[in-house]
Design goal:
This protein is mainly α and about 160 residues long. It is built from five helices and two strands. It is about 65% helix and about 0% strand. The relative contact order is 0.16.
Length: about 160
């Protein structure tokens, strides 16, 4: 099932998800360093990484929702996509709670907030696997005519024409 939202012939959602993933994971790593070292500089970097991860996650979610709406009802892909999306909304919400709680100070998080971050990353790992299941197993977002000798996406030729 080909993605409905593309740029230069490629689905937008998978291009965007790497930014929030990288920022949120980096935020957790910098918070861990801050907790171990007891310094605020790493916590400040983590705080702003989390902010960027939340914002970019919301943008990625908009394009994911557009793709999900195009999946036919009653399919396994629709159910997996729903779990993937809802799980990611929960992940972003968990990080938003941490970020808002820390909004008065960007210093090292409490151990409770850090545990929320770890739980969000764990859930994010599951939702990332679900996203991989959608693409790699169920073919969501993949050009209907995809094959090993398909023409370049910029050629404006159908991938099916080569077969």
């Amino acid at each position: 099932m080909e993605s409905k939202t593309k740029v230069l012939g490629h689905p937008i959602h998978p291009m965007l998800v790497v930014l929030p993933l990288g920022l949120l994971i980096s935020g957790v790593i910098f918070d861990a360093i801050s907790l171990v070292r007891g310094t605020g500089e790493f916590a400040t970097v983590a705080y702003w990484n989390i902010a960027g991860g939340i914002l970019s996650g919301l943008v990625a979610a908009m394009f994911g929702l557009m793709d999900w709406l195009a999946i036919p009802w009653g399919t396994r892909a629709k159910r997996i996509g729903m779990l993937h999306g809802i799980g990611n909304v929960i992940v972003v919400t968990m990080f938003a709670i941490v970020w808002l709680w820390r909004s008065t100070t960007t210093t090292t998080p409490t151990s409770g907030l850090f545990l929320i971050e770890l739980a969000a990353i764990l859930l994010g790992s599951v939702t990332a696997w679900l996203g991989g299941e959608l693409v790699d197993r169920l073919g969501v977002g993949v050009d209907d005519g995809a094959n090993l000798d398909a023409p370049n996406s910029l050629s404006h030729r159908s991938a099916r024409a080569i077969r």
